[in-house]
Amino acid sequence: MDMQVTSTVIEIVAKDIERSLAFYRLLGLTVPAAEGPHVEVALPGGNRLAFDTEEVIAGMHPGWTPPDAPGRLAIAFGVTAPEQVDALFESLVAAGHPGILKPFDAPWGQRYATVTDPDGTSVDLFAPLQS
């Protein structure tokens, strides 16, 4: 039987869903208010970003406990200009989110930076360098 993936959802398990939603709003995503323990956001390209509380995940997966350390997932958000990477980075750090990698001109032709969201997820910011 041939099967084909028809959509993609990236899910973040949030310790504090309101704080997580506020972080992603700072990135410029249109994030609705939480009306329960699950929130979904449409991403460019037709994918979705979902947020669930730890309680929701624990209810679906008996024995699940939150990890002690951040996972191996990184999410990257592209913007149109290098100065937008710097502005987003500064905005997120000013809001209290750890700046892991300050903006720099990467050898692969992008302005690049990394912050972490409230649950320790690595969030990369990038834009093409102007020629």
Can you describe this structure?
- The protein is an alpha/beta fold and 131 residues long.
- A hairpin with a 4-residue loop joins strand 5 (99-105) and strand 6 (110-116).
- The strands form two sheets. Strands 4-7-6-5 form a four-stranded mixed beta sheet, with helices on one face. Strands 1-3-2 form a three-stranded mixed beta sheet.
- The chain is built from three helices and seven strands.
- The mean pLDDT is 90.
- The radius of gyration is 16 Å and the shape is globular.
- The longest helix has 13 residues, at 82-94.
- The relative contact order is 0.19.
Q: Biggest sheet: strands, sense, closure?
A: 4 strands, mixed
Q: Helix and strand succession?
A: EHEEHEHEEE
Distance between the termini: 48 Å
Number of helices: 3
Radius of gyration equals: 16 Å
Structural class by secondary-structure content? alpha/beta
What's the total count of β strands? 7
Mean pLDDT: 90
Which percent range fits the helix content? 10-25%
Question: Strand-residue fraction?
Answer: 25-35%
> What's the arrangement of strands in the largest beta sheet?
4-7-6-5
Spans of at least 5 consecutive residues with low confidence: none
